[in-house]
User: Fold these one by one.
Assistant:
Number 1:
Amino acid sequence: MNKEKRLEILTRLRDDNPHPTTELEFTTPFELLIAVLLSAQATDVSVNKATRKLYPVANTPQAILDLGVDGLKDYIKTIGLFNSKAENTIKTCRMLVELHNSVVPEDRAALEALPGVGRKTANVVLNTAFGWPTIAVDTHIYRVSNRTKLAMGKTVDDVEQKLLKVVPKEFKVDVHHWLILHGRYICVARKPKCGACLIEDLCEFKEKIE
Ligand code: SF4
């Protein structure tokens, strides 16, 4: 895809949604971190349902530690993979208390050292809590980037590196939200809604569905 087309796609996505953000509900970096950790292979809707009950009771590392693994499970048992997520959340809270003064570190290496926190979660937290121009590539962004040919790659890491290279600075902070939302609601996995797509004329996917 050429530079002009790429710029036009990003401009249209921005004009359509100038202030995008995550659909996960949070009020602090810690709430965001835990919500992202819980959202792996689960929907944001299911995470929000659980955190709406959990956070009024416990929304700090110490408060969640005090719940213990079993206490925490009671709040998150409707979320997929809740057993391992409860274990990781408790371990992460313990590390935040013991090593980071109960504050979410604004540091990639420190975030990725937390149990259950990989590159994607660190990218989301750095981007959405701290405003870094990081691009967390999930299944939606991977699909949209490859289909449109905005940034092609065989793995999520390839696509992340490509996007970081080709997306101009002014779009970097928000591009991950635009692409996730586009993939979640328009460029869906099975039957993309090409007829309702605002970048249809620019997209280079060969099997568009009208
Ligand atoms: S035209 Fe279709 S394939 Fe291309 S981005 Fe839009 S929805 Fe996805």
Number 2:
Amino acid sequence: MDSDRYLCIEGIGMTFETRKGDFVALERIDLTVKKGEFVSLIGHSGCGKSTLLNLVAGLLRPTEGGILLAEREIAGPGPDRGVVFQNHSLLPWLTCFDNVYLAVERVFPEKKNLLKERTHTALAMVGLTHAEAKYPHELSGGMKQRVGIARALAIEPKVLLLDEPFGALDALTRANLQDELMRIVGNTKATVLMVTHDVDEAVLLSDRIVMMTNGPAARIGGMVEVDLPRPRERLALAGSRRYMELRTTVMDFLYRKQLKQAA
Ligand SMILES: Nc1ncnc2c1ncn2[C@@H]1O[C@H](COP(=O)(O)OP(=O)(O)O)[C@@H](O)[C@H]1O
Ligand SMILES: [Mg+2]
């Protein structure tokens, strides 16, 4: 298998049928993600980031083109993709443990003790061992997102799909979770496609940033290779010249090149 072409988004177009007629959200999107690469999609609100992520998740079907993951066409949702949305989607009547266990049980045909072990491991990875028995309403927003990440990782997906996973959190919690995600991705070598509208988050976490033009008919307007060495440390980076350059490139795209058309 060609690990340079692990996730292949080929000639994707997405037109929604609405009451006011057809709405072209995405047009001719081509993107190839390497195995183990961390790619961020950035763009103004409404440009089609979530639409593209949902197409990869298999929650939407493209009206043009196709998507391949490890050489297999994506035809619907599947356990080879772990998805985390901005607002956690935990089942309120289940504990943290059971929320993760439920996902693990659906994916791995294994004995209960092995499934439990996987669940404990996933929750330990996000630092939630102490909260395994808690219910979602007993958790902070950051903890809920951690459970969501644990659940997505526990199924050992080929690719992790994150849609503004830290968007609803306060700045400090967001920073903590970004650091944690960097550490986990470093350890697991996960392949990640993340939607964000936060320039600093994109530069800090990504190997590559895909910049989308404003819709309708959004396209990829540019790409930035983030050549900052890993492991990355936010405080050290904040003062680094290369970090500032990369940040400026993305800001320039968003706030100069794409501003006029912004809604
Ligand atoms: N199911 C749908 N039906 C009609 N239009 C949609 C639908 N989903 C998204 N859109 C439109 O597609 C565009 C892109 O939406 P979205 O992908 O959610 O943007 P983003 O995540 O970048 O903010 C928006 O104009 C939105 O209104
Ligand atoms: Mg969105």
Number 3:
Amino acid sequence: MDSMTHTNNFQSVYIHVPFCRHRCGYCDFTLVAGRDDLIPRYLAALEREMQAHDQPLVVQTVFFGGGTPTHLPIVELEQLLKMVTRRFPLADGGEFSIEANPLDMTEEVIDVLHSAGCNRVSLGVQSFQNKHLQTLERDHQGGEIPEIVQRIRARIPNVSLDLIFGVPGQTLVDWEYDLEQALACGPTHLSTYGLTFEEGTAFTTRKRRGQLTEIDEALEREMYALAIKRLQEEGFEHYELSNFARPGYQCQHNLAYWNGSPYAAFGPGAASYLQGTRRTNTRSVLGYLSRMEQGASVIAEAETLEKEHAMREALYVGLRRLSGMDYAEFQHRFGIDLQEFAAETIQRLVRQGLLAADEKRIRLTSEGIFLANRVMAEFL
Ligand code: SF4
């Protein structure tokens, strides 16, 4: 095991819960499907991993992601939440988020979440249309969502919905329907992700065999543009490339990543960023469990970023925020003038109309948003 006891300079904690009922065809996340027998071993391993930090430590944000955290049986779910919040109690006004699968959200589960202090639920809706949910291999029906959201909101009012666009066969009208249905549920926050075909997924294999066709790039762009337009019209702020929030409901945990704040992360595949070092745990769930049980290190990669690298990465990540990168923020973090550090790249991107620079900051232009990956890569 990484025997060092880490200094507690972080205020954000991520817990990876690597269990799902079934692996959806497009998903390449770290998880096991149909291996609920491993849950007790996982809880024991996680507890052991968290012991490397001095505690209890009061934190600003806790985020349970996966996998599907709510897939855990209720007793284990409660055990997990208690174990984490005992070690990392939430500060007043802090954010406690959990990713949830719609069909798991029974009154009983919502009760357990609420009692544990959870104050934000991120619901994996993905679509309101059964044909697309079937393509995505999700287990719920579109028509079930509004009632599930109302049930959650009655106890935990801060609900975010995840939607996917660019599903094979999806039209712009289909996507508009999903956006309208999502808005009608009254969420505080929406995340919209364009479907990607990742190496090693069933979707990519099916695409190669001609069984699935990626949607046209121009249509995908139209879908993204429609989301930006409709959600802004409804009073949501487009604050990060894929994220929209009602005023005051930006995801504090994710902002910590984009702002370059330190964070601790636990579980298989989890990546932490502490004292300038990024450590990533092994992505093998079984490997994580057995290494933890043997007292061996679960860290697969550790990289201490050189200052130059850290600055480039800060730009790469920070420009995901639509507010962009503030010169004062950059100066404060690195003691260097951003306009001097990346003068040539900034000027070129400004000339191309992809970046806007004013006296305070640089940020993506409305055109730059659509080519964000290309723009941000210029800083690496
Ligand atoms: S439910 Fe989410 S995490 Fe689980 S397999 Fe499907 S997409 Fe992946």
Number 4:
Amino acid sequence: MIGRRGVVFPPLPRRPGDGKMAAIRSLKGLVGVISGGASGLGRATVERLIGQGASAVILDLPSSEGASVAKTLGDRCAFAPADVTSETDVRNAVSMAKEQFGRLDIAVNCAGIAVAVKTYNFKKDLPHSLEDFQRVINVNIAGTFNVIRLAVGEMGKNEPDSDGHRGVIINTASVAAFDGQVGQAAYSASKGGIVGMTLPIARDLAPMGIRVVTIAPGLFATPLLAGLPEKVQTFLARQVPFPSRLGNPAEYAHLVQAIVENPMLNGQVGPGLPFDHD
Ligand SMILES: NC(=O)c1ccc[n+]([C@@H]2O[C@H](COP(=O)([O-])OP(=O)(O)OC[C@H]3O[C@@H](n4cnc5c(N)ncnc54)[C@H](O)[C@@H]3O)[C@@H](O)[C@H]2O)c1
């Protein structure tokens, strides 16, 4: 195994009972709550969970497509109309997982919003709206934290597996947390907040066997981006060094599955940028 700074660790000595380690988990029979599950990356995640034999509660706004998506996916999927910033709404979604599917093992935070506004418009002598800034921070950071703090209460009731594992939280930051562009002050700050809270929350929850991992996606072809003109989409795709295209939401969902299955991923943010920027 290669550690940080390229140090090569010798293999660990075998201990009695090593063969019984929990290792790879299967999604079959697990139950997840997915915020923003009615669209884009969240929806692809819901579809992946259902396809792998798990059950899923879509936590999304009442105005979203959540009800029809859940209906299409069948009995192992339910819709909880909810705003991630509301304590009552999120409590209801967590209760729905328990009441309809018996438990809660996974929470994936995909609900998120963005604005694209410069800090100051000097032509119009107009500062960035403080209300817009606060709204993005509230939905993306407080909303993510609200889902985490309420979901883990339910996960803590699970019988631990042989590793002591009770559940997993997966958050969605963005490449903008590290490489924000013009007009992304609010969005980048909100995603940086999600990156920043990943490790302390993982440390808080480690004694209960609940892992926390944050995905920082690059550009993905979701309704968020599909609304842009074809020319802009092609331009954005060309900025990606390799592969030079927008990601498919199914590829994000595949990573969610890998994180759930692999108990050695915890307290981390990835994959981040394709390579280091100087
Ligand atoms: N698409 C990309 O290229 C990309 C890149 C990096 C990060 N992300 C992040 O991934 C996440 C998903 O993005 P997407 O592209 O799938 O967007 P999307 O707009 O397709 O889906 C977002 C979903 O979140 C829901 N939502 C918004 N506010 C909510 C609230 N207050 N309560 C509950 N649900 C709410 C929306 O109704 C929608 O269904 C977001 O956090 C986004 O910032 C996306």
